[in-house]
Amino acid sequence: MSDLSSHRYEPIAVSPESTVVAEFIPDEDTETAYQSEADLEREFIALLQSQAYEYLPIVTEAQLIANLRAQLEALNGITFSDTEWDSFFTDKIAGANEGIVEKTVRIQEDYVQILKRDDGSTKNVKLIDKTNVHNNRLHVINQYELGQGEGGAARSNRYDVTILVNGLPLAHIELKRRGVDIREAFNQIDRYQRDSFWSGSGLFEYVQLFVISNGTLTKYYSNTTRRQHVSESTGAKRGRKTSNSFEFTS
Questions:
Q1: Do residues 108 and 129 touch, judged by C-beta distance below 8 A?
Q2: CA–CA separation, 196 and 113 (whole Å)
Q3: What is the spatial distance between Cα 51 and Cα 72, in angstroms, rounded to a whole number?
Q4: How far is CA 233 from CA 156, 239, 246, in A?
Q5: Class of residue 133 by CB neighbours under 10 A (exposed 0-12, middle 13-18, buried 19+)
Q6: Which residue in 35, 91, 111, 172 has the most C-beta neighbors within 10 A?
Q7: Could you give the CA distance from residue 189 to residue 42 in angstroms, rounded to a whole number?
Q8: Which band of pLDDT confidence, cut at 50, 70 and 90, is reported for residue 164?
Q9: Pfam families attached here (predicted)?
Q10: Distance from C-alpha of 204 to C-alpha of 169, rounded to nearest angstrom
Q11: Count of alpha carbons within 13 Å of 93, Cβ hemisphere only?
């Protein structure tokens, strides 16, 4: 009798003729305090790893570029010479005079770029495989760091979690501990955009999707949509909604 009293049953279907019930087993509550931002980050990375994302300990631009080269070689079944890679990276990926819009067009539409080889021949190089999507390699990195002045960065910044697709950062997640307004994560990404995403080779301008979360509430928005709203808010009349109003987050 005591064993039965410890069980809880909830109705899942009720009609005049019958009632269907199921046993309800609550999740064990082991939390004794608010989850810290570091704990949330570790839990999120572990979740991604369980879904076949490989973790890479990349924290500098040099490591990011070296991994990008390795991933594109693997995707395309080629080996760049140093001369080929320097030229391809400078002209076909980094684009010194390119910004968010140009890099978005490249990853969305012009994702096959032409490599001129040392012997004078040419070869198509895919940045992403949109025909056989399982050929793309997914990685997760965290705590990527840029020092003040590094690559022209206005301030030192350390990013939370970034998802790489074939070595290119295409999604970025900024986290705050539970109980903290996720607007703080939004504002932090806004600061990264001003201070450092464009610095160095500007690879973080390839980010297509931003996610902000405090472990309870989560929102997302695209890089180009954010840029459009920021542009439209320039010189806006007092009282008009701007990018900081969250109107374009979902």
A1: no
A2: 26
A3: 22
A4: 27, 11, 13
A5: exposed
A6: 172
A7: 20
A8: very high
A9: HSDR_N
A10: 6
A11: 24
Tens of pLDDT, residues 229-244: 555 555 444 344 444 4
Is residue 40 within 8 Å of 177, Cβ to Cβ? yes
| Rounded-to-integer distance, Cα 43 and Cα 215, Å | 10
Q: Delimit the domains of the chain by residue range.
A: 37-245
Report the C-alpha gap between 162 and 56 in whole angstroms. Answer: 10
Tell me how far apart the alpha carbons of residues 188 and 163 are, in angstroms, rounded to a whole number.
18
Q: How many residues does the chain have?
A: 250
Stated pTM of the model: 0.77
Structure-token pair, residue 91 = 């002209």
What amino acid is encoded at 219 in this protein?
K
| Secondary structure (H, E, C), 4-18 | HHCCEEEEEEECCCC
What's the 3-state SS for 173-211?
A: EEECCCCCCCHHHHHHHHHHHHHCCCCCCCHHHHCCEEE
Region 34-59 average pLDDT: 91
pLDDT band at 19 (very low <50, low <70, confident <90, very high): low
